[in-house]
Amino acid sequence: MKFLIDNALSPVLASLLKETGYDAVHVRTVGLQHADDNLIFDHAAADDRIVVSADTDFGTVLAVRSTRKPSVIQFRGPGSRRLEALATLLLANLPQCAEALQSGSIVTVEPARVRVRALPINTA
User: Fold this and answer.
1) Nearest-CA neighbor of 92 among 104, 107, 102?
2) N or C terminus: which one in the chain shows less Cβ crowding within 10 Å?
C-alpha cells in the first residue's frame, strides 16, 4: 500500500510508515503543502495512494467527488494528532482494513474503534 500523508499530520508519520516497509510520502515532499483538498485527492488517485489525514473536511470532499479512489484514512477523537499513538493505531489496524482500502473506502480510526465505509459515498 502507498500513502500520502496530509498536511494536518506530521511528516514524521510518513517516515515511521517507511520504516515499517510502506511506501509513504508527505504532501510537503511532493510540493502540495499549500494545495487544496481536491488537488491532493487528484494526486493521490493518480499515484494510487491512500490519503491519511486528521482533516475533518475529507468526508465531505469524498461525498462531492463520488469516486472510489483515493481511499482515505482519517483520524478522529482524543489524541488524533499524537504521532506515536497515530502510528500505533494505524499499523495495528492496517491488516484488517487493507482489502477495503484497496477497493476504495474511507476508514475512520478512533482510539476505541475503527469504522469502514465503502466509496463512493452516496448522498442521495
Assistant:
1) 107
2) C
Q: What residue segments make up the domains of the chain, in order of their start?
A: 2-118
C-alpha span between 91 and 50 (Å, rounded):
14
Per-residue model confidence as pLDDT tens for the chain (124 residues): 999 999 989 999 999 999 999 999 999 999 999 999 999 999 999 999 999 999 888 878 887 888 899 999 999 887 656 788 888 889 999 999 999 999 999 999 988 899 999 999 875 5
List 62's β-bridge partners, or say none. Answer: none
Check: pTM over 0.90? Answer yes or no: yes
- Element (H or E) spanning 24, and its range? strand 23-26
Max Cα–Cα distance, the chain, nearest Å: 42
